[in-house]
Amino acid sequence: MHRILATLLFFYGSLVLVFGLLGYWRTGSHMSLWSGLFFGLLLLISSPLFIYKQKTGRLLALGTSLALTLIFSIRYAATGKAIPAFFAILSALMLLIFLLHSLIANKKER
Fold it and tell me: Which of 75, 21, 16 is nearest to 43 (CA)?
């Protein structure tokens, strides 16, 4: 289960990073560039931490996905534009659910 979530974190972090770069390239948005780099790198860093230092990686990924969910929810509420906010909300929320499930399952194992 940990390796699957770590792989998912790596994939999602890569997507956030790439879409941040694409947002900058297509629209010149510095906010897309910096937020994509920041949150993408946080998710990429949390991926190996999730395996080796499970609590640290889990909390970093949980906080990052929660932040992304909130940021894109606010953006969607402000602009009403479904793309990219709606898809970012769904993907971050799905990751958040997986991470919360992992956190709860880990506490039950102890």
Answer: 16
| Positions of the chain with pLDDT under 70 | 1, 109-110
Q: What CA–CA distance (Å, rounded) separates 47 from 53?
A: 10
Q: Is 81 helix (H, G, I), strand (E, B) or coil?
A: coil
DSSP string, 14-66: HHHHHHHHHHHHHH--HHHHHHHHHHHHHHHHHHHHHHHSHHHHHHHHHHHHH
pLDDT tens per residue across span 46-66? 999 988 877 888 899 999 999
The radius of gyration of the chain from alpha carbons, rounded to an integer in Å, stands at: 14
Residues 6+ away with beta carbon under 8 Å from 33: 20, 21, 23, 24
Does the pTM of the predicted model rise above 0.90? no
